From TrEMBL:
NCBIfam families: bioA, PRK05964.1. This is Adenosylmethionine-8-amino-7-oxononanoate aminotransferase. PROSITE patterns: AA_TRANSFER_CLASS_3 (PS00600). One of its GO terms (molecular function) is adenosylmethionine-8-amino-7-oxononanoate transaminase activity. Pyridoxal 5'-phosphate binds at G111, S112, D256, P314, T315. It comes from Microbispora bryophytorum subsp. camponoti. Pathway: Cofactor biosynthesis; biotin biosynthesis; 7,8-diaminononanoate from 8-amino-7-oxononanoate (SAM route): step 1/1. Keywords: Aminotransferase, Biotin biosynthesis, Cytoplasm, Pyridoxal phosphate, S-adenosyl-L-methionine, Transferase. Catalyzes the transfer of the alpha-amino group from S-adenosyl-L-methionine (SAM) to 7-keto-8-aminopelargonic acid (KAPA) to form 7,8-diaminopelargonic acid (DAPA). It is the only aminotransferase known to utilize SAM as an amino donor.
Length: 430
């Protein structure tokens, strides 16, 4: 089909995420993707500044990942995981356990499902059903995951009558990676923290946990970076305090690393900034390098032994194709100098986004690892902003008050400079 026919049928039948039918925001046909670029149906080539929702860390159409999929499909595309096992899943679970120090691995379909499984683990482990989290978070769109998203900016107003009620501590302050935009990192290994944590906020966290400790099954947070809830960066000391409080009161700590895992923040996992290990961890997105849907919920042997039979079982759990590609993606990550790549992206974003700081309509500009954010005073006009950045040869997907990028690690400094220039240009439309 030509691009016009694709769009016509799309308008007739397809429901896109977070839109009405038909979509109020323009939809663009993609013909192919390779490296860090996607090619549209009209021939335009755009740098994928979103890494396709933060997943394609190696870029698109990578020969190693392609080969892993080809090799696996000749043996089997899928078999049920109930009562059967296979090498790709076992190798992947062993690899993830070694990377995280969490011995038991439950392979799930998506990030939201991984969070659902984590919550089930906590409930079955403790016999309790209340969780504590912080405001400003995002953990997925399914019901249990949605219930621990921010109660104001999430979807509670639409589904509040059906969602369980949990405990929400205040959102963490913005006090990590707050080096002035326009300066470069002082080391090649990631950001420094110019100030210590907010002691008053540490006291608020302590009070919130202590007030509800006797009914909490778990604490669930996104480590260091709150993703789709607002791209907020917080001091690792808050995560360390939650780890200490969980230990003190016999509560599980769940780390949602779906957005932060596999190097995005400058460390392999967000928890590494704080030097802690959670009891349960959720990973996804970049796990397969952006090739296909796969996630995992990991936990300690202590948690698994106490739970016994976990009541969950997705049909495509442990899909061999996805597991094979995930294994190849983790091999590729281990081989490439991802720390240096992320540090270079960070440096380029710090320089490139500097002109937006203090611009009319801009509330804040911040960078951490391979994440660059321009926060605006008012909600952005998505279609208008996308039209501007596409005119600069860049694909971004702004939302709410945010024009942001989480590009593939394979981006060159020139690619990141172009992404930054497109974001700065978009601020002129605020």
């Amino acid at each position: 089909m030509d691009a016009g026919e694709v769009l016509r049928l799309d308008r007739e039948h397809v429901w896109h995420p977070y839109t009405a039918v038909p979509s109020g925001v323009p939809v663009h046909v993609v013909r192919r993707a390779g490296g860090v670029r996607i090619t549209l149906g009209d021939g335009r080539e755009l740098i994928d500044g979103m890494a396709s929702w933060w997943a394609a860390i190696h870029g698109h159409n990578h020969p190693r990942l392609n080969q892993a999929a080809r090799d696996q499909i000749d043996d089997m595309a899928h078999v049920m995981f109930g009562g059967l096992t296979h090498e790709p899943a076992v190798r992947l679970a062993h690899r993830l356990a070694g990377m995280t120090g969490l011995d038991r691995v439950f392979l799930a379909d998506s990030g939201s499902v991984a969070v659902e499984v984590a919550i089930k683990m906590a409930v079955q482990y403790s016999g309790r059903s209340t969780l504590l989290t912080v405001r400003g978070g995002y953990h997925g769109d399914t019901f249990a995951a949605m219930s621990v998203c921010d109660p104001v900016n999430g979807m509670h107003h639409l589904f509040g009558g059906m969602l369980p009620r949990h405990v929400f501590a205040p959102a963490p302050p913005h006090d990590y990676g707050r080096r002035p935009v326009g300066t470069s990192p002082t080391t090649p290994t990631g950001p420094t923290t110019p100030t210590g944590p907010d002691e008053a906020y540490l006291a608020e966290l302590t009070a919130a946990v202590e007030a509800h400790a006797d009914r909490l099954a778990a604490i669930i947070v996104e480590p260091v970076v709150q993703g789709a809830g607002g791209m907020r960066f917080s001091h690792p000391a808050y995560l360390r305090r939650l780890r200490d409080l969980a230990d003190e009161h016999g509560i599980l700590l769940i780390a949602d690393e779906i957005a932060t895992g596999f190097g995005r923040t400058g460390e392999m996992f967000g928890c590494d900034h704080a030097g802690i290990r959670p009891d349960i961890m959720c990973v996804g997105k970049a796990l397969t390098g952006g090739y296909m849907t796969l996630a995992a919920t990991l936990c300690t042997a202590r948690v698994a032994d106490r739970i016994g039979v976990l009541m969950h079982g997705p049909t495509y759990m442990g899909n061999p194709l996805a597991c094979a590609v995930a294994g190849a993606s983790l091999d590729l990550l281990a081989e490439r100098p991802w720390r240096e790549e992320v540090a270079r992206i960070e440096a380029a974003l710090l320089d490139g986004l500097a002109p937006a700081a203090g611009a009319p309509g801009v509330r804040d500009v911040r960078v951490l690892g391979a994440i660059g954010v321009i926060e605006t005073d008012q909600p952005v006009d998505v279609a208008k902003i996308q039209d501007i950045v596409m005119g600069h040869g860049v694909w971004l997907r702004p939302f709410g008050h945010l024009i942001y990028t989480m590009p593939p690690y394979a981006c060159t400094p020139e690619d990141v400079a172009r992404i930054s220039a497109a974001m700065v240009a978009a601020t002129a439309a605020l």
